[in-house]
Specification:
The complex is a heterodimer of chains A (156) and B (215). Chain A is of the alpha/beta class and 156 residues long. In chain A, 32% of the residues lie in helices and 20% in strands. Chain A has a domain of 105 residues: Nucleotidyltransferase, domain 5 (2-Layer Sandwich). Chain B has a domain of 114 residues: Nucleotidyltransferase, domain 5, CATH 3.30.420. The longest helix of chain B is centred in the C-terminal third of the chain and has 27 residues.
Chain lengths: 156, 215
């Protein structure tokens, strides 16, 4: 018994945790730099189409978004299963687009307004009809710079 | 000697890790890694109700149709997307001056015409002169790709067609960039890119989709 008791005292020394904050900080900085905080809560389901000739959207502060897709499962009772438009945090109708464009323009400085881009995030299963209606509304209010949001194709 | 020990006590850094952890978890939760990417296009300005549509010769229009079953047709013939890119390139370049493909105008003629206008556009004149300086008298196509979709066409197909057409123009630009400057288009300086964009503008006209009878 006494022999076993003596052996027990020779445990491995504790690992020093002094460098743990440094490791965590490195991770933290990585996430801080690479992060973009989500713009809105999606009320619609969007799976973007893929395309090869895509460019990065520059100047995020000058981009406004229009989402088109089927409503989320929880909202389907209220809005049905047909594709709908989402502006900001709400599901909207076609004739609210000019209003939305004006509101977005009012948020920017006067000289930045011509540089504004409207990014269309559209679900790939949507029919062209509603997309065209949105485009016609944008043309009406002279919001002509648009961007069709797409992903890089997954390479096998 | 004894006084030395009365200096500022060392700050305990043990809780540093906890603070950093909290921040880390916050950023982990709010982060979305995706970068916004897409195809940037310019919509045509609204047309005044009584304006006349400009006349374009039939040979200068390449009509691309996408029907409700997501099939693509060029000038009425069914094709696939890879052929579409090749056909657009061929149509715009028209190296053998085929009378069924687009017409060309030389930059020097465009320059002359701009100078004779009552209000010449100084910007354009400058660009034309730079092109003549750097690349010689290049031909510029008068061709327009006309894209018509059905209201029931899938958005995914529409993006793939757009992608195929934009790809054709990007390949033409790249080809010219390598020929003139020996570099791919994306490595050129901004003002060099401007000249190449002037020769190969993305001339894509989108007709409004036709209304279809209910399914």
């Amino acid at each position: 018994m006494a022999v076993i008791g003596q052996k027990k005292e020779r445990t491995t020394p504790a690992i020093s945790t002094a460098s743990l904050p440094d490791v965590i900080f490195i991770l933290l900085f990585f996430f801080m730099v690479s992060t973009t905080i989500k713009e809105v809560d999606y009320k619609v389901i969007i799976h973007l189409p893929d395309a090869t000739q895509i460019k990065k959207l520059e100047n995020k502060s000058l981009v406004s978004y229009i989402y088109i897709g089927k409503p989320q499962k929880a909202l389907q009772a209220k809005y049905g299963t047909k594709p709908v438009i989402q502006l900001n945090d709400q599901i909207a109708t076609l004739d609210q687009i000019p209003q939305y464009v004006e509101a977005e323009r009012a948020k920017r400085r006067q000289e930045d307004v011509p540089k504004m881009t409207f990014s269309l995030k559209v679900d790939k299963e949507t029919n062209m009809g509603i997309v065209t209606d949105v485009k016609q509304q944008l043309r009406k209010v002279q919001a002509l710079k648009i961007n069709y949001s797409a992903r890089k194709p997954y390479k096998k | 000697m004894a006084r030395r020990h009365h200096g500022i006590p060392e700050i305990n850094a043990a809780s540093m890790a906890d603070i950093a952890f909290m921040l880390l978890i916050f950023f982990l939760v709010t982060t979305t890694m995706s970068v916004d990417k897409g195809i940037t296009r310019k919509l045509p300005p609204p047309v005044p109700p009584n304006a006349q549509t400009p006349k374009v010769k039939e040979r200068n229009v390449l009509s691309v149709l996408v029907n409700k079953d997501n099939q693509v047709a060029i000038q009425g013939e069914l094709t696939d997307l890879n052929t579409l890119t090749e056909r657009v390139k061929e149509f715009i370049q028209n190296p053998n001056d085929d009378p069924n493909l687009s017409e060309h105008e030389f930059i020097s003629d465009l320059l002359d015409r701009e100078m004779k206008k009552p209000k010449p556009d100084q910007n354009k004149i400058k660009i034309y002169k730079e092109i003549l300086d750097q690349m010689g008298n290049m031909p510029k196509s008068k061709g327009v790709v006309s894209l018509q979709t059905d209201r029931a066409t899938k958005y995914e197909m529409y993006i793939h067609v757009q992608d195929a057409i934009v790809k054709a123009f990007n390949e033409l630009r790249d080809q010219l960039a390598r020929q003139v400057y020996g570099k791919p288009f994306k490595d050129l300086k901004e003002d060099q890119q401007k000249l190449i964009r002037e020769i190969y503008p993305i001339s894509l006209s989108e007709a409004e989709p036709r209304r279809v009878t209910t399914k």
